[in-house]
Design goal:
The protein is an alpha/beta fold. Helix content is about 30%, strand content about 20%. A hairpin with a 4-residue loop joins strand 1 (about 5-10) and strand 2. It holds the Pfam family Orn_DAP_Arg_deC.
């Protein structure tokens, strides 16, 4: 497969492909072959920056009034952030370290929203020193801190999202002022001489219905009015994150965009000149990341009874109810807890003569593998990239780089590599019979994966290999003048404090100089 060129970035290399970029699956397979040729089996990511470009393009097409400020907590990978910075995106930062990372890319501080309603004083002081002045608050205690450390800051009152709707990650318990309490808090801010410029909210990550956006935008309008009544000049609406990373039947980005546009047109028509921003995280990066892992160990359990269930309280006893193992590729967990008295035997068990008769019976059962559970151990798990399974309700399923020797599938469990019993990537799935040394890969692994990974048990986070279609890359990196214009227009667009931006904006433009062609 011909590649155009490779750019060496400050952190890593990015392989560019002609516009007709091969599908990620082909790139992953190619990389697997290269790894095998080098006798390597380490897990790795293929990161397609072009997919991020396409997501951004769709965003601008479907949500033209809404400026994205990427929620970098979702994936703070340096090349991803650099790419997005060059593409003119703003950033939602939650801490000093995140602000440092983005400012070090030459991004103007006005392209950052410090969107953490509970800020450490030292981080607040840092924001003040670097003039990252747009930030959220939701409580009087935060106002007191802001008054102490950054009284000139431009504040967005974060409200709770509409209680009419649910999300898998509901933030209302932790953050947000009840819209009914907003007028009082706004009056307090006014009395303290602080500068509230707008309202923010987050409908929750992985919301269940698109209407949550409409109802919360409606509630935000009421708080806007309260802010204006309190004497503020309310100018910014921040509609947060929660945009789907991959489309589901009930929740597509197109449906969300349609709902948001309708609600904005109704409550914040363009004629009002309100600046609308958002903090998409998963939307931009989920589909750009594919992780490939190697099977490092295997164990097969044969069952005599066919009454297989799983007992979490004893890791030695693994037994499934056979009727609970349908072809459910996307199944999360179908495990049921029952007594651990069922007949079972570990393939490599050496537990003495009293098991011999069971083993004989099991040999018979081997003919018909219905009562078999295959356990595979892969070289990354929930303490690495797969922590999204644990922390982000991710429903994942593996794909194989090559056609399996038989299409027959068996109930399987996929474990991570650490010695922790919690480290289970797939509690139950149907897989063909696989061998140690074979590869699996998983798509849509960009959100809340690498940025949460740690090296527990000394297992390092998988290496990342970046690819991009050259046309997208060139659009982002080849025209510093255009980038300058984008940055300038964006910076001035969201600036409401009248500070001069042009000097700093032009200083941020370094064009291709950051990437040295090799
Ligand atoms: N903004 C804030 C304040 C958040 O806390 C989060 C996620 O936790 C996001 C944006 C991004 O959410 P998502 O990845 O669902 O778009």
């Amino acid at each position: 497969m011909a590649t155009n060129s490779v750019y060496r970035g400050i952190y890593d290399t990015v392989t560019l492909y002609p516009k007709s970029i091969p599908p990620t699956v082909q790139l992953v397979r190619q990389k697997i072959q290269a790894m095998e040729a080098q006798n390597r089996d380490d897990a790795f990511f293929v990161v397609d920056l072009g997919q991020i470009f396409q997501k951004l393009h769709t965003w601008h097409r479907l949500l033209p009034r809404v400026r994205p400020f990427y929620a970098m907590k979702c994936n703070s990978d340096p090349e991803v952030c650099r790419f997005l910075a060059r593409a003119g995106v703003g950033f939602d930062c939650a801490s000093q370290v995140e602000m440092e990372q983005i400012l070090s890319l030459g991004v103007h501080p006005s392209r950052i929203v410090y969107a953490n309603p509970c800020k450490a004083c030292t981080h607040l002081r840092y924001a003040q020193e670097r003039n990252v002045d747009l930030m959220t608050f939701d409580d009087v205690h935060e106002l007191v801190k802001i008054d102490n450390y950054f009284p000139d800051a431009r504040l967005l009152l974060r409200i709770q999202s509409s209680k009419e709707h649910k999300a898998k990650h509901d933030f209302n318990k932790k953050f947000g002022c009840d819209p009914d309490d907003a007028p009082k808090l706004l009056k307090t801010a006014r009395a303290m001489g602080l500068n509230v410029v707008g309202v923010s909210f987050h409908v929750g990550s992985l919301p269940e219905e698109v209407d949550c956006f409409a109802s919360t935008i409606r509630e935000a309008k009421g708080v806007f009015t309260a802010g204006n009544d309190a004497g503020f000049n309310m100018q910014v609406l921040d509609i947060g994150g929660g945009f789907p990373g991959v489309d589901e039947v009930s929740m597509t980005f197109e449906k969300v965009a349609e709902t948001v546009n309708t609600a904005l047109d109704k409550h914040f028509p363009a004629s009002l000149g309100i600046q609308i921003i958002a903090e998409p995280g998963r939307y931009l990066v989920t589909s750009a990341f594919t992780v490939a892992v190697n099977i490092i160990a295997k164990r097969v359990l044969y069952f005599k009874s066919g009454d297989l269930n799983y007992n979490m309280s004893d890791e030695r006893v693994l037994y499934f109810k056979s009727e609970t193992s349908p072809q459910k590729k996307k199944s999360a967990s179908y495990l049921s807890l029952v007594s651990k008295d069922s007949d079972y035997v570990d393939e490599e068990s050496d537990e003495g003569a009293d098991l011999d008769s069971s083993v004989d019976d099991v040999d018979d059962d081997k003919e018909d593998m219905k009562n078999t559970v295959c356990m595979y151990y892969i070289n990354d798990g929930i303490y690495g990239a797969f922590n999204n399974v644990f922390t982000d309700h991710a429903v994942i399923y593996p794909e194989l780089p090559a056609t399996p020797r038989s299409s027959e599938t068996f109930t399987s469990v996929v474990w991570g590599p650490t010695c922790d019993g919690l480290d289970c990537v797939l509690h139950e799935c149907q897989l063909p019979d696989l061998d140690v040394g074979q590869w699996l890969y998983f798509h849509d692994m960009g959100a809340y994966t690498v940025s949460l990974a740690c090296a527990f048990n000394g297992i390092n986070r998988p290496q990342l290999f970046y690819v991009c279609a050259d046309t997208y890359w060139n659009e982002v990196f080849s025209s510093p003048e255009e980038i300058a214009l984008t940055k300038l227009s964006m910076a001035s667009e969201i600036s409401t404090n009248g500070k001069s931006l042009s000097a700093q904006s032009s200083a941020t433009i370094s064009g291709k100089g950051l990437f040295e062609k090799i």
